[in-house]
From TrEMBL:
<dbReference type="Pfam" id="PF13715">
    <property type="entry name" value="CarbopepD_reg_2"/>
</dbReference>
<dbReference type="InterPro" id="IPR000073">
    <property type="entry name" value="AB_hydrolase_1"/>
</dbReference>
<keyword id="KW-0378">Hydrolase</keyword>
<feature type="signal peptide">
    <location>
        <begin position="1"/>
        <end position="18"/>
    </location>
</feature>
<dbReference type="InterPro" id="IPR029058">
    <property type="entry name" value="AB_hydrolase_fold"/>
</dbReference>
<keyword id="KW-0732">Signal</keyword>
<dbReference type="Pfam" id="PF00561">
    <property type="entry name" value="Abhydrolase_1"/>
</dbReference>
<feature type="domain" description="AB hydrolase-1">
    <location>
        <begin position="336"/>
        <end position="439"/>
    </location>
</feature>
<protein>
    <submittedName>
        <fullName>Alpha/beta fold hydrolase</fullName>
    </submittedName>
</protein>
<dbReference type="InterPro" id="IPR008969">
    <property type="entry name" value="CarboxyPept-like_regulatory"/>
</dbReference>
<dbReference type="GO" id="GO:0016787">
    <property type="term" value="F:hydrolase activity"/>
</dbReference>
Length: 547
């Protein structure tokens, strides 16, 4: 067995009862410095990281004398002492014993192991965790993501998706694997530090991958993967993040806090013992709340960006209205079908529908005003009636008397308003994840929208004016009553996902209150049906419109 090492903390006080303490962390057995040790006050946002030579200096001014100072490094027992007693030390040896490593060999034959990838895989550059030491006093904080392993699993690789990085030197990071305690990160399960230097050349396809296979990290149940940045640098680093997934943050030794608006793009490769004993029900590392409603769809966005749709010069045109320029594209021949995308979306969101539907219909796809390539020239608040009027103007310009409409999310809401205002111009309507009122949307999502709106209003950035109006739209509109729904005469197919952000009972109300409506709920589907269930959706649209 490896000998137990002892750390000697050599403290040098500036003067008796000084408020600033400097020192060096050393290994007694090896007499070498220990780099990047955490020194801070428990339950407070006060702390520092020692440098690569183990040296540190911490200011304890204005700290409650009864508070506990904590010195922590993976593989060793934590040292705690009251600030009052700590300040009295001048040249005191503090012994930190190395934790006893009770390593049990895990014997699993290769045929029983299954490769899995868990976590957040998005590589978006529009939603990010930003690390900027020059402007953030919380630079030494930590972020984490929760995972769930129902069976014993070995972590092979940890991936961190980097949106962009500008740094004048390698970025020093520490990875920690935590047990779960009361729904939050608890104690570290690591026997040694996992500290790495991140540089641009180590980022491949927007991902920094750390091989930890030789660390022999086995997990089961709920656990967390945490990341902390240890050393200042000039520049900034942005980590991709997934909206409506839960991340966890803390400021040094402060309490961990849930951040339900977004989670960092951390994902892990694991080997799962498929014949092992189940400890929990889930094995996917996802949240049970809002994250179940929005799975990572970054791969669909990337595929959509690579398609020709939304930027096809041969089929694209612009309709110039008095207060807007509407960009649209037309594909195929036959009965006209108008496709309307969701909030902040664009034509390319239908990249999986256009090729198939254009075999049977004259498909007209539009960027709604202020979205995609379309321009809004007003300062007014948006509403779905305005969008419906835009669609009527487009149809008039194309000389079309009657059309079918398929609208996704906000596009479905516009379709409902069109059905009420221009019934003589509508043949059939398909709504996908649409709502007639705000109370039909998941309550937690609405709360997140409200928080986002407050943040945008506080920032007051002119370049985000359209984004702000589109967010306000979802919080105020639509306002279609049951009495209004009773007036819709067209045949309507109401589609929603079993795990949609639109409440299941609300989709049922739409189908019940519209006289000629049918309801179809896609099993295990989210709000992202045109992305995730494209084949089934295309088939249903064609059958409904052709009958």
């Amino acid at each position: 067995m490896k000998k137990l090492n002892v750390l000697i903390l050599l403290l040098t006080a500036f003067f008796p009862y000084a408020q600033v303490i400097s020192g060096t962390v050393l290994s007694r057995e090896e007499n070498t410095p220990i780099p990047y040790v955490k020194v801070g006050v428990e339950k407070e946002n006060i702390g520092i990281i020692s440098d690569d030579k183990g040296k540190f200096s911490i200011d304890l001014s204005n700290v409650n004398p009864t508070a506990k100072l904590k010195i922590d490094v993976a593989g060793y027992e934590s040292y705690t002492e009251s600030v009052q007693n700590f300040l009295k030390k001048s040249d005191t040896n503090i012994f930190l014993k190395e934790k006893f490593k009770n390593i049990q060999e895990v014997k699993i034959t290769p045929k029983k192991l299954v490769d899995k990838n868990w976590g957040v895989n998005t590589k978006t550059k529009s939603v990010m965790y930003s690390v900027n030491p020059m402007f953030s006093k919380d630079f030494l904080g930590e972020t984490a993501l929760e995972f769930k392993a129902s069976k014993k699993s070995k972590i092979k690789n940890i991936h961190l998706n980097i949106a962009n990085i500008t740094a004048d030197r390698p970025v020093i990071m520490r990875y920690t694997i935590y047990k779960e305690k009361n729904g939050l990160p608890g104690e570290s399960i690591l026997d040694e530090e996992i500290t790495v230097e991140l540089t641009k050349d180590k980022i491949v396809d927007d991902t920094f991958t750390l091989d930890v296979n030789d660390k022999n990290i086995w997990v089961q149940g709920r656990f967390f993967v945490g990341i902390q940045f240890l050393k200042e640098f000039e520049g900034k680093l942005n980590i991709s993040a997934a909206l409506f997934r839960t991340g966890y943050l803390r400021k040094f030794y402060g309490d961990w806090e849930k951040m339900k608006i977004a989670a960092p793009a951390i994902n892990i490769d694991v080997k799962v013992d498929k014949n092992g004993k189940n400890e929990i029900q889930d094995e996917n590392g996802t949240d049970n709340n809002l994250s179940d409603l929005f799975y990572d769809v970054s791969k669909y966005h990337m595929e959509a960006e690579q398609s020709v749709y939304g930027k096809n010069e041969s089929s694209g045109k612009v309709l110039k209205l008095k207060d807007a320029d509407l960009y649209y594209e037309i594909y195929g021949e036959g009965e006209p079908l108008l496709l309307l995308h969701g909030n902040s979306g664009s034509i390319r969101d239908f990249y999986q529908q256009i090729p198939e539907l254009s075999k049977y219909f004259k498909v007209i796809v539009v960027d709604t005003r202020a979205q995609g390539k379309s321009i809004d020239k007003t300062q007014k608040e948006f509403n779905y009636k305005i969008f419906a009027d835009d669609m009527k103007a487009l149809l008039d310009n194309l000389g079309l008397k009657k059309v079918n409409i398929a609208g996704w999310s906000d596009g479905g809401n516009t379709g409902l308003e069109f059905a009420l205002k221009y019934p003589e111009n509508l043949n059939k309507l398909i709504t996908i994840g649409a709502n007639a009122s705000v109370d039909g949307v998941d309550d937690e999502l609405v709360s997140k929208f409200k928080l986002s709106l407050k943040a945008m209003q506080f920032e007051n950035k002119p370049e985000k004016f359209n984004e702000l109006r589109l967010l306000q739209l979802m919080l105020k509109e639509p306002n279609i009553s049951n009495k209004d729904l009773n007036k819709i005469e067209s045949e309507v197919l109401v589609i929603a996902g079993e795990k949609d952000v639109i409440k299941p009972e609300h989709s049922k109300i739409l189908a019940t209150q519209i006289p000629n409506a049918k309801l179809k709920i896609y099993k295990d589907a989210t709000h992202m049906i045109p992305f995730e269930n494209a084949d089934e959706l295309n088939k249903d649209l064609i059958e409904f419109l052709k009958k």
